[in-house]
């Protein structure tokens, strides 16, 4: 798996990394069955590879920053839009912004600034 190779390189070189991805794998504890139904309904055949990728991330010390639903319908709530980092201490905030632009909400994270900013 290519993702595993890059994560290994990042870890070996002690690099900071933020991964933003729509995996269509729900990580809400209360909605796993609903997420499986959603995945089957939308014919997403990569589910096993996606779950393997999530396991690789967590095994290598990545933390999921988003913990609220990122997609809400009249019958389901799911967290399928992910933001992972291998250095949570450098993130000042993260979250979900509810929006009517798409069927998915906006996810974000803000990185802490290192040092002073020069002003012109």
Automatic annotation (TrEMBL):
<dbReference type="InterPro" id="IPR036691">
    <property type="entry name" value="Endo/exonu/phosph_ase_sf"/>
</dbReference>
<protein>
    <submittedName>
        <fullName>Uncharacterized protein</fullName>
    </submittedName>
</protein>
